[in-house]
């Protein structure tokens, strides 16, 4: 079948997937959907559904928006319209679904192309040196033509979006289902559950990855040692990623294992994400190259191509994938792992360029252990104790200002390319924000991002979370400069300003925080829906190696007090905790503050009240911080004010501590037992457990409120958290 006829039929299928005029009128008189959209009457929904002459494609779109599905045979008028179109198409099958019709069209167009003719790509220099063609790559696996790829289905459904649909995605209230609700799916562990938003069903786990071609499958087996998934949790994650929904993974673990080339090893989460990205970029490139071949054949044959026959297969710019990572060492491991899994990086000796520069810029390690232990004169350098998780995270180059463009072709990978010529961008939030400030059109390279990966979001939150918010607000905007863009081939969703509604956001973090949840619920507006991994925590109280008195005090606060939460906490501290600190006859009180804004507030309070204290914050010079800890250990300073960021970046031992006061619980739950262990050097640690009634005995005082449910669950466990927050009679809880 000619490509023009196939394109026309595909466009008719998309038109059938759109609501007719009666649906538009029904929606015009319908109330605006906001947070109370779920309260709309069933009669209004049924009236809108009866007016739709839709197909399965638009049914899926409505289902993803939280609207009742539409019966394809509900309207006799729609059946008559299909019959007329069937007569016009002749022998074509009019009863096939939209997805099946497009699949058949693609297969017939591919069958008419010659296997011996060389493919053409817009980046001519790199492609001329590549061996083979797209037809060979696509022919090695029948999966691409079998299901037309989830990427193509996602793009086609995105074409049916309207302004009202996009507005609903911004304003609708996100409701998550629990284990007993619909849409829940276990993931390897009974404590980890995948759940969909607004009743979305979680995709079932695949038995094996849907490889784009045989080379990718062979490379995956060689790199991972398995033909399929490494575990059930990896299978569940990849299946969710392949459905192109927004994903929030709240149990991201840092794996310290690295290969000989510096690549990340034994990281199932990263492997699943890299495979999904390679699949997406490869399918996008193959689709564009096939369409270029078809247009070139028509031009060679002298056939005039009208605008309606041009394929809509591109964005405004080439970059489609963005990785946001906190530091160079983490990005370097991910880059090397992606190259390890990418078959194009293993075809020939010069398949990847500038590998030496990657090692220097991202994988260069600091001084080795032997160099750290070298003797200076007759005195050995002092080597402080550092936990293993801190060493694994900060091993290597910890610079947080970088950006790198990566171009993926058929048989080569090009590093350090210009952003507008790259397929994948690795960058830190600070690197992107500084690039956006260079010039007015600097942010155009973000206009066509289709997959956004935010890895180690909990580490980025320790840097500056506002940068991530700035990037998402600047992403998928209409570009100010077209930069050699063929507007006639740009997808309609991008031209209509709905590019962010077809973007998939993958948010990976070790745990959930209110900031991460807010970003995922409000700024990720993928029409396909949202899925998250909910983890149930058992707490860290069992990890304590010291028996001491732990007193948790609940601050009286309501959910509506979220705006004034900081003021309420501060007033409670001034009234109930500060007097106990001042009346303590012995020094050795450590006040731990999670937020730097609260840290400044408490610091000013201690200065005003003439309390003898020392400071350790992330902005304190290392020499001054060491001096402050020494004064505190010697008892010359009664209080040590410590911020969570300072402890996150340096993890120094604190001597002389007799009492730990948590002004706010730490985001990183393992900081709690680590800080409590500092009481082991105190002579009163044992007496506090044997005599908990003593007013100033060594121990722990932790303040929490109803708004600290996520932090509290990670510290005390899910069962205790429910009792401590739900109890209205007891505001104080004691653990020994």
UniProtKB/TrEMBL annotation:
<dbReference type="InterPro" id="IPR027417">
    <property type="entry name" value="P-loop_NTPase"/>
</dbReference>
<dbReference type="Pfam" id="PF22916">
    <property type="entry name" value="UTP25_NTPase-like"/>
</dbReference>
<dbReference type="GO" id="GO:0000462">
    <property type="term" value="P:maturation of SSU-rRNA from tricistronic rRNA transcript (SSU-rRNA, 5.8S rRNA, LSU-rRNA)"/>
</dbReference>
<dbReference type="InterPro" id="IPR053940">
    <property type="entry name" value="UTP25_NTPase-like"/>
</dbReference>
<feature type="region of interest" description="Disordered">
    <location>
        <begin position="1"/>
        <end position="52"/>
    </location>
</feature>
<feature type="region of interest" description="Disordered">
    <location>
        <begin position="68"/>
        <end position="150"/>
    </location>
</feature>
<feature type="domain" description="UTP25 C-terminal">
    <location>
        <begin position="541"/>
        <end position="735"/>
    </location>
</feature>
<feature type="compositionally biased region" description="Basic and acidic residues">
    <location>
        <begin position="70"/>
        <end position="85"/>
    </location>
</feature>
<dbReference type="InterPro" id="IPR053939">
    <property type="entry name" value="UTP25_C"/>
</dbReference>
<protein>
    <recommendedName>
        <fullName>U3 small nucleolar RNA-associated protein 25</fullName>
    </recommendedName>
</protein>
<comment type="similarity">
    <text>Belongs to the UTP25 family.</text>
</comment>
<feature type="domain" description="UTP25 NTP hydrolase-like">
    <location>
        <begin position="251"/>
        <end position="531"/>
    </location>
</feature>
<dbReference type="GO" id="GO:0019843">
    <property type="term" value="F:rRNA binding"/>
</dbReference>
<feature type="compositionally biased region" description="Basic residues">
    <location>
        <begin position="1"/>
        <end position="11"/>
    </location>
</feature>
<feature type="compositionally biased region" description="Acidic residues">
    <location>
        <begin position="86"/>
        <end position="146"/>
    </location>
</feature>
<dbReference type="GO" id="GO:0034511">
    <property type="term" value="F:U3 snoRNA binding"/>
</dbReference>
<feature type="compositionally biased region" description="Basic and acidic residues">
    <location>
        <begin position="12"/>
        <end position="24"/>
    </location>
</feature>
<dbReference type="Pfam" id="PF06862">
    <property type="entry name" value="Utp25_C"/>
</dbReference>
<dbReference type="GO" id="GO:0032040">
    <property type="term" value="C:small-subunit processome"/>
</dbReference>
<keyword id="KW-0539">Nucleus</keyword>
<dbReference type="InterPro" id="IPR010678">
    <property type="entry name" value="UTP25"/>
</dbReference>
């Amino acid at each position: 079948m000619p490509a023009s006829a196939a394109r026309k039929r595909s466009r008719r299928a998309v038109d059938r997937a759109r609501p007719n005029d009666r649906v538009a009128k029904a929606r015009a008189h319908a109330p605006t959907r906001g947070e109370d959209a779920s309260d709309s009457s069933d009669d209004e929904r049924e009236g809108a559904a009866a007016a739709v002459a839709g197909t399965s494609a638009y049914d899926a779109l409505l289902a993803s928006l939280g609207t009742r599905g539409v019966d394809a045979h509900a309207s006799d008028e729609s059946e008559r319209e299909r019959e007329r179109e069937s007569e016009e198409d002749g022998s074509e099958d009019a009863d096939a679904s939209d997805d099946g019709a497009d699949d058949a069209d693609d297969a017939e167009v591919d069958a008419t192309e010659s296997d011996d003719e060389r493919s053409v790509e817009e980046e001519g220099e790199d492609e001329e040196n590549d061996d083979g063609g797209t037809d060979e790559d696509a022919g090695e696996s029948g999966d691409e033509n079998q299901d037309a790829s989830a990427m193509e289905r996602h793009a086609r459904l995105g074409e049916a979006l309207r302004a009202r649909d996009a507005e609903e995605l911004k304003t609708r209230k996100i409701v998550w289902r629990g284990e007993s609700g619909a849409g829940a799916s276990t993931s390897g562990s009974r404590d980890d559950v995948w759940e969909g938003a607004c009743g979305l069903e979680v995709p079932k786990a695949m038995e094996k990855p849907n490889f784009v071609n045989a080379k990718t499958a062979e490379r995956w087996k060689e790199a991972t040692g398995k033909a399929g998934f490494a575990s059930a949790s990896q299978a569940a994650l990849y299946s969710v990623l392949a459905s192109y929904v927004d994903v929030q993974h709240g149990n991201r673990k840092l794996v310290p294992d690295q290969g000989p080339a510096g690549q990340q090893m034994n990281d199932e989460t990263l492997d699943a994400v890299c495979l999904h990205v390679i699949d997406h970029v490869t399918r996008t490139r193959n689709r564009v190259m096939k369409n270029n071949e078809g247009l070139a054949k028509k031009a060679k044959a002298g056939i005039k191509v009208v605008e309606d026959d041009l394929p809509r297969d591109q964005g405004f710019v080439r970059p489609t994938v963005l990785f946001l990572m906190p530091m160079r060492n983490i990005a370097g491991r991910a880059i090397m792992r992606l190259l390890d899994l990418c078959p194009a990086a293993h075809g020939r000796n010069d398949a990847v360029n500038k590998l030496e520069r990657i090692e220097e810029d991202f994988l260069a390690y600091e001084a080795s252990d032997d160099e750290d232990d070298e003797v200076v004169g007759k005195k050995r350098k002092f080597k402080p104790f550092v936990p293993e998780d801190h060493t694994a995270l900060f091993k290597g180059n910890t610079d947080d200002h970088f950006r790198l463009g990566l171009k993926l072709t058929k048989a080569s990978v090009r590093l350090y390319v210009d952003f507008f010529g790259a397929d994948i961008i690795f960058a830190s939030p600070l690197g992107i924000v500084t690039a956006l400030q260079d010039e007015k059109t600097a942010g155009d390279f973000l206009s066509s991002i289709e997959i956004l990966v935010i890895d180690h979001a909990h580490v980025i939150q320790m840097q500056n979370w506002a940068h991530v918010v700035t990037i998402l607000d600047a992403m998928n905007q209409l570009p100010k400069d077209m930069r050699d863009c063929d507007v006639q081939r740009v997808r309609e969703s991008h031209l209509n300003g709905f590019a962010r509604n077809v973007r998939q956001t993958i948010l990976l973090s070790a745990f959930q925080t209110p900031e991460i949840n807010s970003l995922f619920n409000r700024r990720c507006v993928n029409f396909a829906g949202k899925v998250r991994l909910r983890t149930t925590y058992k707490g860290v109280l069992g990890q304590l190696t010291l028996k001491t008195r732990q007193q948790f005090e609940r601050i009286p606060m309501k959910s509506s007090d979220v705006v004034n939460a900081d003021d309420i906490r501060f007033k409670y501290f001034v009234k109930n905790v500060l007097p106990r600190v001042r009346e303590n006859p012995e020094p050795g009180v450590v006040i731990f503050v999670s937020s730097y804004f609260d840290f400044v507030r408490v610091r000013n309070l201690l200065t005003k009240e003439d309390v003898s204290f020392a400071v350790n914050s992330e902005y304190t010079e290392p020499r001054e911080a060491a001096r402050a800890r020494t004064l505190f250990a010697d008892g010359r300073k009664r209080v040590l004010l410590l911020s969570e960021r300072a402890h996150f970046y340096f993890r120094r031992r604190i001597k002389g501590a007799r009492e730990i006061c948590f002004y706010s619980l730490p985001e990183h739950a393992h900081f709690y037992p680590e800080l409590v262990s500092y009481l082991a050097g105190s002579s009163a640690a044992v007496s506090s457990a044997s005599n908990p009634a003593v007013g100033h005995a060594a121990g722990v005082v932790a303040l929490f409120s109803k708004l600290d449910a996520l932090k509290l669950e990670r510290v005390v466990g899910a069962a205790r958290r429910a009792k401590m927050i739900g109890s209205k009679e007891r505001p104080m809880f004691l653990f020994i």
